[in-house]
Design goal:
16% strand; 7-stranded parallel beta sheet; binds 2-amino-2-deoxy-6-O-phosphono-alpha-D-glucopyranose; 3-stranded antiparallel beta sheet
């Protein structure tokens, strides 16, 4: 697992957007795994800027999102389909037919099977990740084991409280979500996880201090991927006191 430390969230976002753009330059038919959340918004803004400047086209790209709430209508402002439209798709030349955001209208429905079929037919060149305050990736919550394939999850209380800032009340936050499994995430050729926000201190400290992969801190699975990079700011490194613990002795690199 490589680590890149930047001066700011803006710098991190531009670095990641440039990397995505380079992947598309190398392969205009690239398949990109995308993520949602507040941390990702500046990456999409940077990608839209590259598009507006004529530096990249998404016209032949395929995208697939990590997860979606169950029970929210697609048109709900907090559905991840709506998030993607608002932050990215609406402002680029991407063909909507080539964008996949999983759907799950009811906990018991079969949408995650369609999701799995899609994932297996579309190997990803790249997977973007954020991280939850409890270390979750996608919506793979801490637990006793990892689920490999796409599945329906019961969101834990911490995650619902964290995401309640986007809803008018905690009651409105869905209780279930559909998510890629950990095996699905790990199948992407390259993975970049952006860790942003002071509320991620505990997750980031655990990621860098655990030597093992522990299902109680799901993002630790990235230690097993052959091309995974964690991008975080100097500020977060200080807050998590990672330098003092020597966690970065050999891990600083650049996003090429
Ligand atoms: C949600 C998403 C995750 C995301 C996390 C953090 O729970 N399912 O994919 O990483 O939010 O989001 P934020 O960037 O808003 O902190």
């Amino acid at each position: 697992m490589k680590t890149v430390i930047t001066q700011s969230h803006e710098e991190a976002s531009v670095l990641i957007a440039d990397m995505v753009s380079n992947i598309i330059q190398a392969n205009k038919n690239a398949c990109l795994g995308l993520a949602t959340g507040e941390s990702m918004e500046l990456i999409y803004a940077a990608l839209v800027k590259l598009f507006n400047g004529g530096k990249v086209s998404f016209s032949s790209v395929t995208t697939v999102n990590l997860d979606e709430y169950v029970g929210l209508p697609l048109s709900h402002p907090q559905s991840y389909r709506e998030y993607m439209n608002r932050n990215f798709f609406d402002h680029t030349d991407i063909d909507r037919a080539n964008t996949y955001v999983p759907m799950g209208m009811e906990p018991e429905d079969q949408a995650h099977r369609d999701f799995q079929t899609f994932l297996e037919a579309h190997p990803r060149d790249f997977q973007l990740l954020g991280v939850g305050t409890n270390g979750h990736i996608g919506f793979n919550e801490p637990g006793r084991f990892f689920e490999s394939n796409s599945h329906i999850v019961t969101l834990n209380d911490q995650t619902r409280r964290d995401n309640s800032r986007f809803f008018s009340s905690l009651d409105e936050v869905p209780k279930y979500a559909v998510t890629m499994g950990m095996g699905d995430i790990m199948k992407a050729s390259r993975i970049v996880m952006l860790v942003h926000g002071a509320n991620k201190v505990k997750a980031v400290r655990e990621l860098f201090t655990h030597r093992q992969v522990v299902p109680e801190v799901p993002c630790t699975i990235l230690k097993l991927h052959r091309d995974a990079t964690v991008v975080l700011t100097e500020e977060l490194v200080e807050l998590a006191e990672l330098k003092r613990q020597g966690s970065f002795a050999k891990s600083v690199g650049s996003l090429q």
